[in-house]
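FORM 7B: Structural annotation worksheet

SECTION A. Query
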Amino acid sequence: MLIQLELFGEAPKKQEKHSKPPKVGNYNLAPPSNVVAEPAAIANKVINAEKAPINIEVEQRKPSGRHAISSFSADAAMVNIPDDKILFSKSYYPISEVAIMFNVNISLLRFWEKEFDVLKPRKNRKGNRLFRPEDIKMLKLIYFLLREKKYTIEGAKVFIKKGKKSTQKFEAIESLKQIRLMLIELKTGLSA
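SECTION B. Predicted structure
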């Protein structure tokens, strides 16, 4: 087969498996300022060469697939879980709200539900997942272990199975974070 292709010219080039996404660019599609036409065309039509330029912006797609571990630490600061008083004011939270709280995809929450036995969200008759505040607290621990401490899923399962000591350790870390934030705010208030 290869010999036959070489008889007719060069062998076809192999296409790359992963092509790069298009780059963002501004393309100016303004008509040229001097339009040259034949005298017969000028007599038949009036050519307006001073049209406004047209700018087209091409949006670059975000890469899909796995993300670098270094990007997780930046995302960890973006978790927006309300305080316990506000969190326990509702009995159930839909999965979409929980995904927004943790700034993750809904599919990741479903995956964590399959992997971790301690996560058991309720399901209504339609099959929609409803998370209790206790489930959200457990998700907070799982998120902390996987994204901030960079545990593997198996390591996080072992950590959670240790029981009461692991949750006490996590609560101590959370309270120290709150104290740190308070001290940073105090420091910025003094220097301003």
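SECTION C. Observations
The radius of gyration is 29 Å. Residues 164-191 form the longest helix (28 residues).

SECTION D. Sign-off
Analyst initials: ____
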